Batch of 3 targets.
Target 1
Amino acid sequence: MKPHNDGPRRPLTRIGGIGLVNLATLTWATNMALGRWLRNDVGPLTLAAARYSVAALVLAVLLQRQPPSGRVGRGSRARWLGPDRWLLLGMALSGVVIFTPTLYLGLRLTTAVNATLINGMGPLVTGVLAALMIREPMSRRQVVGAVIGLAGVAVLIPGGFPSSGQAIRVNWGDLIVLAAVTLWGVYSVLGRRVMRQRSPLSATALSVFLGLPFLLIAAIWEIHTTPIDLDPIHILALVYIGIAPGVIGFLSWNAGVRRLGPSGAMVFYNTLPLYGALLGYLALGEPIGPNHLLGGALIVGGGLWAAECFT
């Protein structure tokens, strides 16, 4: 039997990976919009717990279709922990338990402009982590593409470039957001290791199952200090957040990482502010100016260049 090749070298594999990671960032852009809408009604820990509770139910149903003891990839069982249990726990802690609350905390202490610019550093941070953790060095194209994408983020967000003689002030919120970006980079790198032996569905589901108990405990504590205010519309929003960003987004991201590698996939993380701007225009009536068009072109172009779509 011909061994599976999960490298990003084949054109169709690259194109499929690009589509998957962009689907993930699009669903996460909708999550950020809904998260802002719910911020006065549901605390960040409770929102994260509700999201992953719904996601866990959907993932459990999907995982039931996998053979209970069948082999996935190179030998891991789809439904059970194996020798990679510690890597899965690392995915759970970095990408499920800590990342989202950390990002929300940072957004309480810094501006959206600063937070978005710092998120644009994700490709560079992930590339460095991939080189250190799994010896997957960034190519020159990936470095150039990441820098182009970061420039696009700076152009896209109004006020992204400081005025003459001024600089973006770094505060604790900036450092916390940078920590969140680093956590997501760790999740992506660990996911790359896990998915050498598991399917994206298995890796995503088991990491969510492992992380959910931590979030539920934290949510119980938060509800005692920050009561929630829900109506049927809010509940529908929570269900959507659990299914679209929580399941579709994670599965798409992990499948994209499997095809492009963590540093190659992370380049497209910069499309998140682009999709956020489009959602703001379509759903909230916010204007789109030349800076959005130029920034979007740089973001998409940098990602395509890094993924070697122009060769």
Target 2
Amino acid sequence: MIRVAVSGAAGRMGRLAMKTVAEAEGLELVGGYDPGHARETIAGIRVSADRAAAASTAQVVVEFTVPGVVVDNLAGWHGLGVSAVVGTSGFDRAKVDRVRSLWTDGPSRCLLVPNFSIAAVLMMHFAELAAPHFSASEIIEMHHDRKADAPSGTALTTAEMIAAAGGRQDRAVESEELMPGARGAATGARIHSVRLPGLLARQDVIFGTPGETLTIRHDTLDRESFMPGVLLAIRGVQSLPDPVTVGLESLLGI
């Protein structure tokens, strides 16, 4: 039985994670941490504003908070000797390096997950496979209007994977922007972020080369789609060989 606490317990993803863990075979929900909702009861657990109290008996903490507090929370979980599964967005390479410098010793593990959707992980893997065969690529990511950051962690990770796989950005002309930002964020593959009410999450990775294009698209229609990945991460994080791992790929065998 793996004992689990959830950080950001009262948020949309936190509440769903609390309910999912409480109902999952082989897992025991033992705590919830959310300073803004202390003493609220979710999935039968009283939420705490005290980090140490929330994770006092936990082996794994699932982190669903916001970019501004996540690194401090991770320092706290590491100090308590608890493994962390992190779904908070906004982990660019610099922030990942900060976590690696923090999480260097002890038996606990940290798994940073840009996207818990197994289908989204496969989408990124397919983009990595396609990258060296095309002249250039662009990423369009679309999310609901309550998402706190842009671009998404999934888009950033996809761009990094394309670059690492040998993806080129060879265009005949680098178009002049008549309005700043019109060509998206330049991170190798350019990223365009859309935030609209009515959306949940979608990402298109578009590759082009003379005479043809390839579009790899993933749609998230319900947050329930993230929960199999959350459970996979909880069950696998403590067995990971490195102190800090990025993505579900190693747990999926890809």
Target 3
Amino acid sequence: MTDLPFHSRCQAGQLLAAELQHRLPLNTLILALPRGGVPVGFAIAQALHLPMDVLVARKLGVPWQPELAMGALAGESLTLDQKLIQDLRISRQDVDAAVVRERAELERRERLYRAGRPAPLVRGRTVVLVDDGLATGSTMLAAARYVRNLGPASLRIAVPVGSEQACQLVGNECDECVCLAKPRPFCAVGQWYEDFRQVSDTEVTNLLELNHRQAAHVAGA
């Protein structure tokens, strides 16, 4: 039984690492979803001595309710909640505008976070997609579909907390979905953390740089 709320994303990542430590082979790659998933992924990578990188995915928010996802982008993968779009009578023009806007932000973050480094090799490796939680699961769903098309040996999803519905949704796109807690009712990820402050671009780039420096040091040792 996992005690809620988590103190922080770092603590949640450490608890996830303990859950994952005997399940992952040596060629595992941690891919964290920025921004909130990066401190969680970093804690896992540190605890298990694994390489970490980011997979930038963007939620497509309903125009008049941005926190409500009508779909998501990850790489070339676009997922849309067609039932929600139809039920809310969201126009094709509004959907297209959201895709253009979020793709531009996705590309901006890719350039910023990678800092000229190439994307990591995924084919033939075990990949663990990490975020700080799953509410609707739409962003993780897009990320999982994108990574699956890159040919990993195994794809797993790991989150500290999530809704039952979201875990079932993404579980169909991976080999295993590890979620420490599925509380009910589930309104938002932030309600299950004492410290849920916004993660900045600077924090993401700093954690990535630290992880890459440590990996380079181990490789050269």
